[in-house]
Structure formats: C-alpha cells, structure tokens
Design a protein that fits this description.
The structure is a single chain. The protein is mainly α. It has six helices and two strands; from the N terminus they run ααββαααα. A two-stranded antiparallel sheet has the order 1-2. Strand 1 and strand 2 form a beta hairpin. Helix 1 crosses helix 4. It is globular. The mean pLDDT is 84.
Length: 188
C-alpha cells in the first residue's frame, strides 16, 4: 500500500523526527508561557521581557539580559558568546543522540536512552515505559499545535498567550478568534 508509512525505514525515520520535534515543542511551549506567568506573579522582568517573542531582544539592551531579573544568575551580554555556547552544547547533545553514545555512556537507544538519563527509573517497568512513550508523543503533538497557536496569537494580537487568555476571560464576546479575524477582512 502507498502512504507515508509504507516503507518501515521511512516510518522509523518519520517517527524519530516527530518525537524530536515533539520534545522541542514541549520545551518551547513551557518556555513561552513561563516568563509571562512569572511576571504576573511578581518576578521582575523588563517592560517587554516577559513576552516570549520580545525576550530575545533583551540581550541587545543596555546591561544585557538577566535571568529572572537577577544579574547574579545568568547575565548574558554578548549574542556571539551565547550563540557559541548554544552551538557547543547542542552540538554535543545532537552528537550523542545521533551516535547513541557519549564518553562513559555507550550502547544506548538514540530516542529513549534510559540509564543515566532516567534517574527516576521510569523505564524500569516495560508496561509503564510503553504507556509513557504514548503519553510523550500525544503531549508532544498537543505542544506542537499549541506553539502554532501561540505564533498565530502573537502575529494577530501582539500579546503573549497568558495576556490573551486573561483578555478573553475578561470579555469573551470581544476578545476571541472571530473578532480578531475581522481585522484581516478587506473593507468594501
């Protein structure tokens, strides 16, 4: 039969790609909502620093970017140094993932390594592990869709997801997708 999963090797490759994208989306969704939630609960951010699509520009401001508003934590002032650290750390992580081994850790599964990467022993029971794999991919698919929604909200409203939610809950008849969509309808 024809289709995206007709060939077992292609199916395995697509599954790997989907799982990696799902994990990134899970982290991304968390990273999108966390600064805004922290700012709403008293953690100091600059005026625009708590909105996910404006947070990266903080590094170019005078004094750089302070993690959680505290210069004693991570104090990033150079985009080049930040980029270099990310390339090195992500290169090492992706090298491990692609090869299935790192110094002192060999022969692990590239998608579900277990061992030292499972300190809570969640993969010890095969039935529980199979259930957790299904939960991970389902939540990852939801996170990918959520990130897409966050992107569209940012383009349409220019606000973060928590602010959009609060606006909608305050006045659902005015702050909704249909009201926002009418901004893009050509006038007669």
């Amino acid at each position: 039969s024809a289709g995206l999963s007709a060939d077992p090797n292609t199916f395995a490759r697509y599954r790997t790609i989907e799982l990696i994208h799902a994990r990134w989306a899970l982290l991304g969704a968390l990273g999108i909502i966390t600064p805004e939630l922290l700012a709403k609960n008293g953690v100091p951010f600059s005026e625009d620093g708590a909105v996910w699509f404006k947070a990266g520009a903080e590094i170019f401001k005078e004094g750089g970017l302070n993690y959680l508003g505290n210069p004693n934590l991570i104090h990033a002032q150079s985009i080049l140094a930040t980029l270099a650290v990310q390339v090195i750390v992500m290169g090492a992580a992706e090298g491990f993932r692609a090869n299935g081994e790192a110094p002192g850790v060999e022969g692990l599964d590239t998608l579900y390594p277990g061992g030292p990467f499972d300190p809570l022993g969640l993969a010890d029971d095969p039935d529980t592990f199979a259930e957790l794999k299904v939960k991970e991919i389902k939540n990852g698919r939801l996170a990918m869709f959520s990130c897409f929604g966050f992107f569209v909200q940012a383009i349409v409203t220019g606000k973060g997801p928590i602010t959009n939610l609060q606006d909608h809950l305050a006045d659902p008849g005015v702050n909704n997708a249909f009201a926002s969509a009418t901004k893009f309808v050509p006038s007669p």
